[in-house]
């Protein structure tokens, strides 16, 4: 496989993943970003912990979707993440993902 073929394949996979994200985002309540992954989840529990003076975070996500082009199954029942890096959790506004009844946004 040539380098261009591999790059095109990865670009196609990323586009498919983005389309899947646009389809499923309305099913979830939260967006969670860590240094390694991006998740959608319906329930998020974040705990700040420390050990020997080091602060870290434990995240428990329930009913989640994982942004990862290399995963076959992106829907998971639960996810546990331990990280020393920043964590961003945002609650989604479901109205942003609904199509207006008149189709015009009025």
TrEMBL record:
InterPro entries registered for this protein in UniProt: DUF2469 (IPR019592)
Lineage: Bacteria, Bacillati, Actinomycetota, Actinomycetes, Micrococcales
Alphabetical list of Pfam families matching this protein: DUF2469
Protein name: Protein often found in actinomycetes clustered with signal peptidase and/or RNaseHII
């Amino acid at each position: 496989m040539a380098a261009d073929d591999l790059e095109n394949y990865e670009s196609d996979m990323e586009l498919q993943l983005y389309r899947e994200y646009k389809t499923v985002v309305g099913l979830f309540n939260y967006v969670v970003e860590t240094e390694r992954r991006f998740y959608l989840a319906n329930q998020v529990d974040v705990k700040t912990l420390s050990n020997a003076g080091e602060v870290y975070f434990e995240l428990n996500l329930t009913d989640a979707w994982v942004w990862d082009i290399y995963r076959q199954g992106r829907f998971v029942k639960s996810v546990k993440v331990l990280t020393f890096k920043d964590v961003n959790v945002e609650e989604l506004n479901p109205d942003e993902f609904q199509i207006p009844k008149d189709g015009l946004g009025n």
